Amino acid sequence: MTDVIQNAVSAAWSQLPDGVADAFSSDPESTLRDALGLKTVAVSTLDVVRQEGGACDGVSYLDDGVILYRPTQSRRQFFTLAHELGHWLVDQTDDVYDLLANQRESAKLLETVCDRIAQRLLLPAALIDSVLSGSPPAARHVTELMDASLASRPVCGIALASRLRGLGAVIISDPERAQVDYVSVRPDSVDGWPAVFPWTGQPIPPGHPIQQVRGDHPITRKSYWETPWGARADYYIGVVADGDRAIGVLSDRDLWGSEQLHLDAEREFDRRPLGEVRCCGATRSVRGWPCATCGEQCCPTCGKCRCDRQAAREVRCTMCGCQYLPHLVTGGVCVDCR
Question: Is the pTM of this model over 0.70?
Answer without folding.
Answer: no
